[in-house]
């Protein structure tokens, strides 16, 4: 009896392996691991925001609108909790991506504003925070690209035959991914060159004299 059970287990394992179950499980774990790293790096960035805002505020207190935008964007990011189990929800992924994009834009604007304050740029604490932010942004990009790749591989695999039948049987659904178009838009900082003088303003047009009668 024991040998019969063992034989059934071996046969079942072979069938599952042949239908791609093990590969699906492996790719699913790869997506979850990649997503965990994305969350870690985004959280690392969010943690830098309070000190960064306070440091800039010490030199540019009147830039209140910029500080408000950054603070609000960070708060919005903190309100969205997207776990690995939620990756099949495209609406949640879209909301998460939008919130992170708004924070990226707000931080880019904050960095642009800092260019107007030489004393701020020379501040050691600001230089350290700026370096940390740049490093974190690079790690975010790397983590995001790995997630995009692993998700594409997973989705392609579970949609192919016969893995699609196995995925359907065991509840493995396609996962939402970052949209390439929006990613390019939100990750591109505005280009501002303070080394170039502003173009001279044109004098207002003078009214033409009325013809003499």
Automatic annotation (TrEMBL):
<dbReference type="GO" id="GO:0016020">
    <property type="term" value="C:membrane"/>
</dbReference>
<dbReference type="Pfam" id="PF04011">
    <property type="entry name" value="LemA"/>
</dbReference>
<keyword id="KW-0812">Transmembrane</keyword>
<dbReference type="InterPro" id="IPR023353">
    <property type="entry name" value="LemA-like_dom_sf"/>
</dbReference>
<keyword id="KW-0472">Membrane</keyword>
<feature type="signal peptide">
    <location>
        <begin position="1"/>
        <end position="18"/>
    </location>
</feature>
<protein>
    <submittedName>
        <fullName>LemA protein</fullName>
    </submittedName>
</protein>
<feature type="region of interest" description="Disordered">
    <location>
        <begin position="187"/>
        <end position="213"/>
    </location>
</feature>
<dbReference type="InterPro" id="IPR007156">
    <property type="entry name" value="MamQ_LemA"/>
</dbReference>
<keyword id="KW-0732">Signal</keyword>
<keyword id="KW-1133">Transmembrane helix</keyword>
<comment type="similarity">
    <text>Belongs to the LemA family.</text>
</comment>
<feature type="compositionally biased region" description="Pro residues">
    <location>
        <begin position="197"/>
        <end position="213"/>
    </location>
</feature>
């Amino acid at each position: 009896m024991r040998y019969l059970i063992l034989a059934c287990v071996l046969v079942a394992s072979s069938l599952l392996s042949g239908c791609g179950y093990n590969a699906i499980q492996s790719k699913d774990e790869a997506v979850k691991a990649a997503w965990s790293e994305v969350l870690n790096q985004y959280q690392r960035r969010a943690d830098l925001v309070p000190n960064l805002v306070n440091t800039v505020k010490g030199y540019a207190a009147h830039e209140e609108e910029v500080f408000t935008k950054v603070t609000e964007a960070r708060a919005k990011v903190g309100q969205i909790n997207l776990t690995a189990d939620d990756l099949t929800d495209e609406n949640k992924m879209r909301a998460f991506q939008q919130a992170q994009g708004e924070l990226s834009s707000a931080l880019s604007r904050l960095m642009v504003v800092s260019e107007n304050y030489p004393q701020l740029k020379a501040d050691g604490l600001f230089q350290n925070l700026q370096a940390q932010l740049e490093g974190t942004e690079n790690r975010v990009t790397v983590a995001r690209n790995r997630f995009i790749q692993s998700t594409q591989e997973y989705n392609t695999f579970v949609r192919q035959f016969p893995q699609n039948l196995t995925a359907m049987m065991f509840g493995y659904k396609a996962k939402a991914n970052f949209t390439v178009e929006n990613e390019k838009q939100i990750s591109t900082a505005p280009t501002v060159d303070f080394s170039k003088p502003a173009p001279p303003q044109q004098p207002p047009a003078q009214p033409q004299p009325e013809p003499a009668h």
